Amino acid sequence: MHQTIIHKTKPLPMLGWGLCIVIATGCQHQPPAERPAVTLPVYSQGDADNGKKQYEEACLKCHKLQPGNNEKGPQLMRIYGAKSALLTDYQYTDALKNSNMTWTAENLDKYIAHPKQTIAGTRMRSDPIADAKVRQDIIAYISTLR
């Protein structure tokens, strides 16, 4: 004779609700963070075509150009004219968060030339682009990324 034992357990309603909340919020795909549209005119004091080449050689390994594609540095789409440290999906340094910098041509030029002197505490590489013409070209290219 077999005897079947049935264990009755009480459901854990709070655990069930908590699991539902986690599934409903944590598993949804969050769209990548983006900056607002660029409103400044294109920077015309540089050659954007050469700037693209220079950007690809000097900047692209750390700064991609697709929203959500942050690597060593944040992606730079729509950076021109934007406030610093806007992307919510990139972990900026406190120094950059607190800088309250707007990425104008003048500020980009200073930052690309001397990142650590412009914003002490930045993670930006320490081998700056010394050639002013190359910086102007890169800024011209960046200003077209809309």
From TrEMBL:
Residues spanning the signal sequence: none
Stored SUPFAM superfamilies: Cytochrome c (SSF46626)
InterPro entries linked to this entry: Cyt_c-like_dom (IPR009056), Cyt_c-like_dom_sf (IPR036909), Cyt_c_1A/1B (IPR002327)
Superkingdom of the source species: Bacteria
Ranges of residues in domain Cytochrome c: 46-146
Keyword terms: Electron transport, Heme, Iron, Metal-binding, Transport
Molecular function terms from GO: electron transfer activity; heme binding; metal ion binding
Name the record gives this protein: Cytochrome c2
